[in-house]
Amino acid sequence: MMLWIMRISGFFSAATVMVVLSPSLQSFPPAEAIRSSNLDGYLRFPAGTHASGARDSFSFRQAPPFRNAEECGGLGDDSTVCDPSLVHIAITLDVDYLRGSIAAVHSILQHALCPENVFFHFLVSDTSLETLVRSAFPRLRFKVYYFDPERVRGLISSSVRQALEQPLNYARNYLADMLEPCVRRVIYLDSDLVVVDDVAKLWRTSLGSRTVGAPEYCHANFTKYFTERFWSDPRLAGTFAGRRPCYFNTGVMVIDLVRWRRFGYTRRIVRWMEVQKGGASAGWGGRIYELGSLPPFLLVFAGHVAPIEHRWNQHGLGGDNVKGSCRDLHPGPVSLLHWSGSGKPWVRLDSNRPCPLDALWAPYDLYGPASSL
Ligand SMILES: *[C@@H]1O[C@H](CO)[C@@H](O)[C@H](O)[C@H]1NC(C)=O
């Protein structure tokens, strides 16, 4: 552990990361970590990759097989998505973030005590990506769901960063409709993160009577997530009356789908997106927020979220939305590292200008042909 941290990251505070990460990273195989940190053999994404041209040039190495520990109990080969012992995880797959999604899956399998009990629900707008997932994880339990971009086309509002305007970013709002009714709970995860702890612990979190669980950040200045317009119109700002709203990040959420369906939250979120789009023409006086898919979730759930330990979303590692500067970990233990913000570890590693903590993402990267090992 000590050895590989030192070797892959001579220039960052190894001591800090050691103290913070060592409890949750003990199962990390040191040999693989060292090997993967040698980036010379890695392919680059063609600049400005998009759609089918890029897809043809992707290739992923096959991940090693992951098997349940004995105490997991058996899950028959004939078990279906409705098996109650499954842990359900939803992630989007798209060409630009595919490398991140594959690394996220890899990290989850590697740290799970019962990896064969994890069922992945992949949301795609390009169904050909299924083949790539299968090539990286031959035995993975998963299902691919087609998310029609047209579903949200008229609802997306321009934002501070173009990546936030991708239709698939909005797919998380439709999970309750898309997944089978027998799936009662799901963990939604962004594509720019790795899990370094057993995801079953997050799965078992109690939500009490809440519908959504996520780490809350009550010291963040909540005001800034909405425009002055919003705050100055009592019909709008009044939505937070009687709540103590706190910021939470929608990249890691535990969702009770039964309650979500019962209370029709998809519709409530869509209604806020309509207010944002309707703007002046609808008599609401313009934009009510500047970010992408996040603010409607804050409007509906902030103050009503089941608080989850902060270790499950060490967010912001991508840096700020404008400059993409390097960020440090927040104090405390780490179970999930999240490169939210504009900088992505695969881009920075490929350009030989990584941030120190990007070295913690690299071991999960499966991108590149088998011969690059
Ligand atoms: C919070 O942000 C708003 C809007 O940017 C600003 O006007 C206000 O002064 C901030 N409050 C604090 C306590 O920093």
Structure description:
With about 375 residues, the protein is of the alpha/beta class. The protein is built from 15 helices and eleven strands. A seven-stranded mixed beta sheet has the order 3-2-1-4-9-6-10. A two-stranded antiparallel sheet has the order 5-11. It starts with a helix and ends in a 23-residue tail after the last helix. It binds 2-acetamido-2-deoxy-beta-D-glucopyranose. 2-acetamido-2-deoxy-beta-D-glucopyranose binds next to loops. Pfam families: Glyco_transf_8.
Helix coverage percent: 25-40%
- What is the domain tally? 1
User: Which radius of gyration do the C-alpha atoms yield?
Assistant: 20 Å
Task: Name the helix and strand elements from N-terminus to C-terminus, one letter apiece.
Answer: HHHHEHEHEHHEEHEEHHEEHHHEEH
Instruction: Return the CATH architecture.
Output: Alpha-Beta Complex
How many distinct helices? Answer: 15
Spatial order of strands in the largest sheet: 3-2-1-4-9-6-10
Please mark out the parts with pLDDT under 50 across 5 or more consecutive residues, or reply none.
1-55
Topology:
Elements: H1 2-8, H2 14-21, H3 30-37, H4 51-57, E1 87-93, H5 98-111, E2 118-124, H6 129-136, E3 141-146, H7 150-153, H8 175-178, E4 185-189, E5 193-195, H9 199-203, E6 212-214, E7 216-217, H10 228-232, H11 234-237, E8 247-248, E9 252-256, H12 257-263, H13 265-278, H14 294-301, E10 306-307, E11 336-338, H15 345-350
Helix pairs in contact: 1-3, 13-14
The structure holds 2-acetamido-2-deoxy-beta-D-glucopyranose (NAG).
